[in-house]
Amino acid sequence: MISHISDCTVLNNGVKMPWFGLGVYKAKDGDEVIHAIKAALKAGYRSIDTAAFYENEVGVGKAVKESDIPREELFITTKVWNSSQGYDSTLAAFEESRRKLGLDYIDLYLIHWPVKGKYKDTWRALEKLYKEGYVKAIGVSNFQIHHLQDLMADSEIIPMVNQVEYHPYLTQKELHNFCKTRNIQLEAWSPLMRGQIFDHPTIQEISGKYQKTPAQVILRWDLQNEVVTIPKSVHEHRIIENADIFDFELSPEDMARIDGLNMNKRIGPDPDNFDF
Ligand code: NDP
């Protein structure tokens, strides 16, 4: 049972990754992201998920530097953006992210989206960065089963993580099972569906039963499904609320009821049909 905010999953290369962390998409660079990260670190978070695309790596790096937490206790993820994909351009993008973050190494570097015709070259660059020790783990994001199969057919290293949209309306069962059998850790983005699912009667009822907020119920459901989760908030009270999920356990029946809400409904782009 996952019972503490510092509990980790062990990735397929032996690296430990916290089950729980802070997402910072749309947190503004500067004070907003710095305050959010400081509040999160104070609340016990140790994992931060950013991306070159979020344009807040400088703030993330500053918050990390100003904290007293030893680097090895932190887990920092960033991602290579679509326009930088390809072998040489990924190496350059990585260097830029590392410089902005002010870090010697990154814990997890992800391919942000499966850009057709590019992601295999991008992956070769990630393999090189991994072998040289600049990143502790490498992975992908928004990869469907066929993307993973295609990538793995031609590569040396199996991705350690696949970060995808995942919430009670999009449970990704088939993809999750595929990842489990290959030892690829699934990670949820938009775990709270950006707040759009809090009013669902089933979530409301379970929330009342456990005396936990809808956000806490959904995040606990992630953990019990063995999915790494990275809810985003820039408000300290919500940052604290979202992390207060380690003192209760949803019953198998309630887990199944939340699983049953699936509608294969996305709020973000479709990885098989995006044009950016
Ligand atoms: P989330 O599902 O985490 O929802 C975030 C939204 O919900 C924000 O508007 C936040 O508001 C609000 N919120 C957070 N906690 C609570 C709460 N307890 N009660 C009420 N409202 C709450 O969405 P995200 O899209 O941000 O996903 C999380 C992270 O996943 C991102 O920040 C990013 O790191 C990653 N991501 C990755 C993607 C990818 O393609 N790989 C795509 C999208 C996201 P406020 O901040 O005002 O508190």
Write out key terms for the chains shown.
binds NADPH dihydro-nicotinamide-adenine-dinucleotide phosphate; 8-stranded parallel β-sheet; TIM Barrel; 276 residues; 10 strands; alpha/beta
Give a structural overview.
The protein is an alpha/beta fold. It has one domain: TIM Barrel (Alpha-Beta Barrel). 38% of the residues lie in helices and 15% in strands. The protein is built from ten helices and ten strands. It has helices at residues 31-42, 57-66, 87-101, 119-131, 145-153, 173-182, 201-210, 214-224, 236-243, 252-259, and strands spanning 8-10, 16-18, 22-23, 47-49, 75-80, 106-111, 135-141, 161-165, 185-189, 228-229. The strands form two sheets. An eight-stranded parallel beta sheet has the order 3-4-5-6-7-8-9-10. Helix 1 (31-42) packs across helix 2, helix 3 packs across helix 4 (119-131) and helix 7 (201-210) packs across helix 8 (214-224). The longest helix has 15 residues, at 87-101. The radius of gyration is 18 Å and the shape is globular. The chain starts with 7 loop residues before the first strand and ends in a 17-residue tail after the last helix. Residues 23-25, 49, 112, 141-142, 163, 189-195, 215, 230-235, 238, 241-242, 268 line the site of NADPH dihydro-nicotinamide-adenine-dinucleotide phosphate.
